[in-house]
Amino acid sequence: MKKSHMEIEIKQQPQIISKIIDAYFFDNEKVIIDAPDDVDKIIMVASGSSYHCARCAAEIFGDVSNIEARAIYSSEFLLKKVIPNHALYIFISQSGETTDTLSALQKVKQLGMQTLCVTNVENSTMWKAADYRVNCLAGEEQSVASTKALTAQMLCLYLLAIKYAADKKSDISKQIKNLQVLPDVIQRSINLEGKIQTLAKFLYKYRDIVIAADGVSYALAKEACLKIKETSYINVMSHILGEFMHGHLAVLNNKKTILVYISSDELSYSAIKNLEKIKADYNPPICVIGTSTDRLNTSYNIDCNLDSDNYILKIFSNLVIIQILALKIAEKLGRDVDKPKGLRKIVTEN
Ligand code: F6R
User: Fold this and answer.
1) Are residues 144 and 80 in the same domain?
2) How far, in Å, is the centroid of ligand 1 from the Cα of 173?
3) What's the pTM value of the predicted model, to 2 decimals?
4) N or C: which terminal CB in the chain sees fewer CB atoms within 10 Å?
């Protein structure tokens, strides 16, 4: 069977990750990237998968570089009456052409604030309009569902967070170790394909899939949801698990519903309690991605077996796992992942 662009692009990721690290991380010690110095607040604006990247990156800027950062959907940003001053605005876009993100960039420029774009298309309209530019270097992405470009965006923003941490003389030794092993982590996640396919065979029959997560992983739950919808057209919902307990869990009364929990950390006490309660009250099949656990009665558990406290490596690993999961569910349903119905690669006005 001919491989889809989506599959080919997922599998290119270890090489792309190495290429980005070689391009922006010099002599194994210094990030050199086109960005302003002395930033104490970051606002990231993006749509779709690029927004999910922004949400993960917001946590990473806070944790790694001690910079307050937030993510906002481009379309929502355009509705804002008050726009914070004295921030670096980062626009994330695979294509560099998405109308809402481009309009947001133009709005911020008119207000005279610093703009940086992270894009996979050099010389795109956003690239030309922004003050600072980071090329994701993922190579042309042909699959409508974004995979390699998203992982590349994540890495570029992680590198930027490392740059700001180093500028502040923070200890970046743990981040350097992460960069050294990242291509291998991505390859190991791809190597889980067989296990992920088994999970896909189990999931594709469900009428409703709830994908839940807490903290930084919530953006991954949203991404998994988007990727599965785009390629399989099935009804998948994403929820913050803690919030899911406030009424949303009534959907589990529908016995054709399954719960997938994504974690980029060890399972927290409250996640275990919530999942145990869900099991006791509704007894849905529960699958856990990203961490191994024997505390819960799970139907499936997929884990790349990374250091349990290294949530950044786990984010990258989980990103790849959910991309393969979406691909395998779509294949099981006989969908053409490269031609999803009614979708265009670039969302513009025309
Ligand atoms: C998801 C996907 C879309 C894009 C969104 C933003 O797989 O492809 O949701 O992420 O349309 O596109 P860019 O990043 O080009 O601005």
Assistant:
1) yes
2) 33
3) 0.97
4) C
